[in-house]
Amino acid sequence: MRARVECIPCYFKQALSAINKAGIQDEKEQVQVLFELMKVIPNLDVFASPAEVSTYVLQHVSKVLDIPDPFLEAKKEANKIAMQLIGSVRERIDSSETPLFTAIRAAVAGNIVDLGIIESYDLEGTLEETFSSDFAVWDFEDFEKLMGPGKTLLYIGDNTGEIVFDKLLIEELNKTGLMVTFAVKEEPILNDATMEDAIEVGMDKVAKVITNGNGFMGTIVSQCSEEFLKALDDSDVVIAKGQANYESLEGTKEAGEKTFFILKIKCPFLAETIPGTKMGDMVFLRNKVRYP
Q1: Residue 109 has what pLDDT?
Q2: In percent, how much of the chain has pLDDT > 90?
Q3: Domains of the chain by residue range
Q4: Which residues contact 262 (CB under 8 A, 6 or more apart)?
């Protein structure tokens, strides 16, 4: 997905979020960081994927602040909040007539934990809303055809907090006989999950956990490790969670038609790329290769 000129204000919003989460309260210092960012933006390819541009923006902010992970405490808090809800959500899944479908709903609800777009969120309220809402796009029948005992699934994770509900979905996927590998970031970026975060929520108990070899938002194939690329290529089916993974993998041959995007629409311009969707909609979308 190519960025648009309207994405540029969002880069500054993400930068300000990083500044706030780092605990920088002095307005003069905040302004100075943003002024430094203004010098960098013109030298970026602002029409690359929004995920890639956002990465360069946030990396620059971290460098100026001299804080490698401005979202460290926010990430730990997100996992803590989500873990407090895991018991009740698991009960809801177990008592459902369609546990896998209910687990997918929980996983997409978790996608609300996106501190680059939404400064605060009501996770419990979002879960309730999601359990009673329909998907705007539901390509699950295509997904089912690729499933099966002994087949492999690469699950590309997104944010902390969110990964708690990804874990519940993986528990259900395991029951179908799929062998699941879960991918996280090698280095911190925004509130994306790293290996430390995955282990904290017990993801290693339900799936093989690997990193993608980099600290870019989404999945920028040129930045990924050989281990991750092999997992992507060898997997029978792929789930890619969240907006940044959609932005960077949508339409690509690397993702192929075996990739399914699970996300909540949090950007009006993103909705324009997925016919029939609007802000707030839930999507389970099969990738269609458009780029050679």
Answers
A1: 85
A2: 79
A3: 5-65, 72-286
A4: 104, 107, 108, 111, 239, 240, 241, 242, 283, 284, 285
CA dihedral defined by 204, 76, 264, 94, rounded to 10 degrees?
A: 50
* Model pLDDT for residues 201-250, shown as the tens digit of each residue: 999 999 999 999 999 999 999 999 999 999 999 999 999 999 999 999 99
pLDDT category, 127, cuts 50, 70, 90? confident
CATH of domain 72-286: 3.40.50.10880
Full 3-state SS string of 218-231 = CCCHHHCCHHHHHH
Q: How far apart are CA 99 and CA 129, in angstroms?
A: 17
CB atoms near residue 181 (< 10 Å): 21
Give the position of tokens 């870019």.
216
